[in-house]
Amino acid sequence: xxxxxxxDKPRYFFKYRSITGEPDDEGSNAHRTRDIIEKDRLFWPSxxxxxxxxxxxxxxxxxxxxxxxxxxxxxxxxxxxPHLTKAQVKAKARISxxxxxxxxxxxxxxxTELWLEKIGICSLSATASNVLMWSHYSDSHKxxxxxxxxxxxxxxxxxxxxxxxxxxxxxxxxxxxxxxxxSSPMGEQNVLERQFLTKxxxxxxxxxxxxxxxxxxxxxxxxxxxxxxxxxxxAMISNENEAQVREWNAGRETPATIKRALLDKLxxxxxxxxxx
Length: 276
What we know:
This protein is of the alpha/beta class. Helices cover 30% and strands 23% of the residues. It is built from 8 helices and 14 strands. It has a 5-stranded mixed beta sheet with strand order 1-5-12-13-14, sandwiched between helices. The chain has a 3-stranded antiparallel beta sheet with strand order 4-10-6, with no helix packed on it. It has a two-stranded antiparallel ribbon with strand order 2-11. Helix 3 packs across helix 4. The longest helix is centred in the middle third of the chain and has 16 residues, at 101-116. The radius of gyration is 23 Å and the shape is elongated.
């Protein structure tokens, strides 16, 4: 791997977590948070469960004149069916174009939903001090934020086994939805960036990075234990929940450092400090 590719990523990623619910209730926030700390594994959900209804759903359109669309379709058919004659390619293209545009769009939307059911995405942030993130994802500052070291490139223990978070890709933010042109070959369109790495501008405060896997269904994925760097306690965490988090951390082979988010005395910002 190119060293510059490693250094381009943030050194740390953060996962905001709620600890509501019963720790023994599989599927609860508390259970999945405990799994991160005790079992070194993260849950990668399907995008269909995300809180943004636009997430991973680009707009689908059929663009260009009928002649231009036919030429594009012929090109795609030639690529995947090189044995066909010119006349066969032309006939196959016209059959494809005979489908009404609205039906093409509906078919694409249906196949996209089926595809998203099989994909797992782990969302991370490049910041640990965003007040809105604590409010939205850490139970209004009563939860925690887990800090991961993206790699051990800077340490003597660097090895390929520590590259789990190096697969993360940055999300970009835009004013308009990305568009898939159904009349163009998908291979000529940046599917990864348009479908999975573009969100509305109003989400930019999240500073999101994503781990994406389509080889396995949504579910738990283990990460190297030495990547868990620290656990940041929310500014409003209860004594009971803090004690629970500390208990989980104490069970680790190498406990993570405990930090605390505090309300700044003069500004509307959070200060991350070592916990007592």
